[in-house]
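S1.2 Input.
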Amino acid sequence: MPAWKEGQRVGVSYMGGHCGHCEWCRRGDFVNCQNQPISGVHTDGGYAEMMIAQASGLAAIPDDLLSTEAAPLLCAGLTTFNGLRNSKARPGELVAIQGVGGLGHLGIQFARRMGFQIAAIARGPEKESLAKKLGAHHYIDSGAQDPVAALQDLGGARLILATAANSKSMSPLLGGLAPRGQLVVAGAGGDEPISVNPVSLLFGMRSVAGTMTGSSIDAEDALSFSSLQGIRPMIETVPLPNAVEAYGRMMRNEARFRMVLVTGP
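S1.3 Output.
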């Protein structure tokens, strides 16, 4: 355990630590701790000027990252970072990022800095310039073309990181994978489950998997990588007393792309 110092800047992610004694902790799989404290659920979260956190949940923040930048990296950033680095994709291979929003805009940046060829998938032409500015090599407008055909024209994706909060939109994407490719689900939402055609799984040996956020050391890795590679989230800051306003913007899908509550002057 690091020797934390008074006054040191640290962050706490969605997963606020681990118990250290359940079976999965004993196996070193802290992200699947069976007694996982969730920030804002089992303990008071960040809608406050101060909070108490487990030491096992802390992540050191690099000096060149603003606290307002680090906050989204500890959630959306960590989720996409781990989803990419723990996948079977290797530098130079085609990786598709579905969704150019809160998760996706960070996923594109991480994927570019990790050396992947990137295809961003979103509905409508309005996000193309942003996707390419963030590092995408290709943009696929799912409202104007078939994403599966577009990905296969590029040779098939080794990985599709699905970040959109719409399960139905993920279902057809399996056919856009190369043989032995992975559809890794990082977003959740919508009223329908993901439906999978078993033929696409069997012929081509493709797979579907999920990705969680990560442990505190994973969070530290994500922050360090972001610092090293100049990756930053797109945020809107709102004073803590206006938290209800910020929450409303988020729920109306008006945030571009993360609302960050700030305290003090």
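S1.4 Remarks. The first strand starts at residue 10 and ends at 12.
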